[in-house]
Design goal:
alpha/beta, 14 strands, 12 helices, binds D-glutamic acid, disordered N terminus, globular, 362 residues
């Protein structure tokens, strides 16, 4: 209110003084209370080390601790009051349900505290997209949760970790990020946890949201949003993992020419409660596999038709009569994200109509 009145007065005096008022009120210049951001470190390349400064592949991930990551970016203290916790230290190809439950419970506990305004999670890039969607479905707060990684180890020339961490902390402390769901922030871009995916094995711009697009950019020390996800997430979620110490087994059967039901039958024998069929095209079912899927359904296993294609809607009753087969379709979720939603859905119900509604809502 004071600044608003002050600026009104200055408008009456001179344009030059108005710009001074705007500078004073601009977020990066105002003398304002810094947000409290907690960094939860889990490993990955952002914490990785290589044998030389030019080693950008063949390095060791998950070596550098959270305090060292914070010390490497002294500029963090200009944008937030930062605390660090090492939740675990892994290369993210080793991520599993136990780590997810540990991380999600810590996130929810911290976000329930009045002295925490946002959270940054440093993470290996290989499974960032899965952790981001898992947290998008189980975090019980509108406060920002930003997942960040790096494509070059901390020892490399032009390592991307420090600037990615700096941007992620700013984003996690930004009012604009409140209520946007879990965000993934690398390479100056902001993507939604529901839709982002890793699209290149090695380049800095690997995290993309093909077709549906990114949410915005990090530039000039602040976020610039241009859209937001339309699906239920975080504070609006019905899923609650706080009392869980395990999650139902859900596996993915990858579709390809000449496939047979060997993999599917192995997953059924291993006790899968759900199967994601990553079909070719619009989730098509090969004749060699369809009978085994029907048998699995008869055993009470929930079958979700997804697609290996990666973009577009898998249409219900399109390539298969889902009503007759009692199958579910994944909508636009890729197989690895459909697996996460089905896993959480099975903590609440095995009713396929209810689960299909979840795939249209989240
Ligand atoms: N081992 C991979 C991981 O931890 C390295 C990739 C990365 O973090 O960028 O995800």
């Amino acid at each position: 209110m004071f600044v608003g009145c002050y600026r009104h007065l200055l408008t009456a005096i001179s344009p030059l003084m108005v710009s001074a008022a705007l500078l004073v009120s601009h977020p990066s210049f105002a003398d304002q209370k810094l947000p409290n951001v907690t960094i939860l470190a889990t490993g990955g390349t952002i914490a990785g080390t290589g044998s030389t400064s030019t080693t950008t592949v063949g390095y060791t991930a998950a070596k550098v601790g959270v305090e060292a990551l914070i010390e490497a970016v002294p500029e963090l203290k200009n944008v937030a009051n930062v605390k660090g916790e090492q939740v675990f230290q892994i290369a993210s190809e080793n991520m599993n349900n136990d780590y997810w439950l540990t991380l999600a419970k810590r996130v929810n506990t911290l976000l329930a505290q009045d002295d925490v305004d946002g959270i940054v999670i440093t993470h290996g890039t290989d499974t960032i997209e899965e952790t981001a969607y898992f947290l998008d479905l189980v975090v019980k707060s509108k406060k920002p949760v930003v997942i960040v990684g790096a494509m070059r180890p901390s020892t490399a020339i032009s390592a991307d970790g420090p600037i990615n961490l700096y941007n992620a902390v700013i984003l996690a402390g930004s009012p604009e990020a409140v209520g946007k769901g879990v965000l993934v922030c690398l390479n100056d871009e902001i993507n939604a946890g529901r839709e982002v995916t890793k699209t290149n094995t090695a380049t800095l711009n690997t995290f993309r949201t093909p077709e549906l697009g990114l949410l915005g950019y990090m530039q000039d020390n602040r976020p610039h949003f241009y859209r937001q996800s339309t699906r239920r997430n975080t504070a609006d979620t019905e899923f609650d993992i706080m009392g869980l110490d395990s999650l139902p087994r859900v596996d993915i059967v990858y579709g390809y020419a000449n496939m047979d039901p060997t993999a599917l039958n192995a997953f059924v024998a291993a006790g899968a409660k759900g199967i994601i069929h990553a079909g070719v095209g619009d989730g098509s079912l090969a004749s060699a596999v369809k009978p085994s899927l029907i048998e699995a359904r008869k055993k009470g296993i929930v079958i979700v038709r997804s697609s290996r294609v990666g973009n577009g809607i898998v249409a219900r009753n399109g390539e298969a009569n889902d009503d007759e087969l009692d199958f579910v379709v994944s909508d636009t979720l890729n197989p690895q994200k459909a697996r996460i939603l089905l896993m959480l859905a099975l903590t609440r119900t095995t009713d396929t109509k209810t689960i299909q509604t979840m795939f249209y809502n989240y």
